[in-house]
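>> received
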Amino acid sequence: MTAGGRIAGLVLAAGASTRYGGGDKLLLPFDGGTVVGASVRAAFAARLDPVLVVLGFRARQVREALGHQAARFIENPRYAEGIGTSLATAAAELIHDPSVAAAVILLADEPGVSSAVVRVVIDEWRDTGSTAVRAVYLDRPGHPVLVDRSLFPLLLRCEGDRGLSAALRREGLPFHTVAIDDRAPVDIDTSEDYERAVRGRGA
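>> returned
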């Protein structure tokens, strides 16, 4: 573990919204901006640097929706194959930057993740020296997830629809968990999920 360097934010925003049933859920209004914008704002509010947004489906529209935010955009040409390819794309961008000590993974369709929870996960990493830290809410495990730089080569090998959890299991590596005294933010897959997320935000 190298806790003294920068901590990057990886906002995974490449998915095709196939379960949403029309349109791009990431561009829906949320909390004065868009769904994807809320996730990126949380990354900046948590002082992550750099903030990388992995694009794929409707990349131009998502980039334009975030144009006012100082994120770094990278495109995943294999996004249709699954989330693993987005993790690998992001890792390929970060692995050559020795100033980045860890990365926090956020999902663009979970706009309710707060910067405060991101900081809790980061503090747990610093305090424990764990290589992978996951937030566990009252009702389920969720995001954010932090990966130490030592695991970037593992992210490079992610593929298809297999994310970090599958990669860790394959290598026999543990997740360290940190308890969050709240329910997990809504993962927006359907229009009903979106309505619940908006209600929960008071928007």
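>> The longest strand covers residues 6-13.
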